[in-house]
Amino acid sequence: MNEAIQPEVIPAPAAATGPKKFNWLLFIVLCVVGFLASFLVLPYAVALTSPDSLGLPGADQSMVWVMSIVGQICTGAFLWPLIALGLLAANQIGMGAPLLEGLLTSQPLKGKVAKPLLWGFAGGSLAGVGIVLLSFAANPLLMAESERLGQSLPEIAAPAPWMGFLASISAGITEEIMLRLFLLTGLAWLGSRLWRTPEGRARRSIFWSANLLSAIAFGLLHLPLASSLEMTTPLMTLYVVSQNALLGLTFGWLYDKYGLESAMLAHFSTDLVLHVFLPMLPLAAA
Predict the structure, then answer these.
(1) pTM above the 0.85 mark?
(2) Interatomic CA distance for residues 233 and 75, integer angstroms
(3) Side-chain-side CA neighbours of residue 263 (13 Å)
(4) Are 97 and 30 in contact (CB under 8 A)?
(5) Which residue ranges make up each domain of the chain?
(6) How far apart are CA 142 and CA 129, in angstroms?
(7) What confidence tens digit (pLDDT) does each residue in 78-111 have?
């Protein structure tokens, strides 16, 4: 007799079994890496800071170092709750740091590493070149506005390339933790409570809304630096926010598609172009 044909059993999606467990080892690694990375920006930040800008007229540069170190200790510690909340939200909607998680849990990563890193490096480098070209195009408009308002664009001596390199590592890690792992993921998770896919991920409209909001926040995050450098005309403010928001959208897309590591590498590569290679060009030094 022929046996009855049994219906094919289709396994349920992984997300249907519930969110992933909280990875404490990943949390600890990101906390340590983020805390240490926050200090790499110190030489660059101190090079751009004067005692007067900190409200310390008459103080020597050693006070700038003390104030900067205290500030970075606070920044590094502030990352810890953001990492925890970001990972909790990421586990719910299928985002996170897949390469680090796989490495820490001894999962096979063959064939899963090259594309995220290649896209991160290439995407970030191209974005950096694009920002340089945009700045050359916008510079005449910015100078014209400054002249109309009776102001002058400040001549800023770029810190040494090695300082820019360290700052690029720092920003690539710490800012991606704050803006992508925490803010973008948190916003996407909140949106997914209202509208999500059957697998538990945020709908594309929800993700891109979260990506846009976090990118705008990324742009606004750079305004205090522009203000401290006396780059505060209306057009300059719009330029600073918009160019960084465009970068934020790119990093957010890479984070969603390939993971936090790809976004970090892209951010690092962009800053490498802007803060290491560009200051080394004869045109920039002129």
Answers:
(1) yes
(2) 28
(3) 32
(4) yes
(5) 19-285
(6) 19
(7) 999 999 999 999 999 989 999 999 999 888 888 8
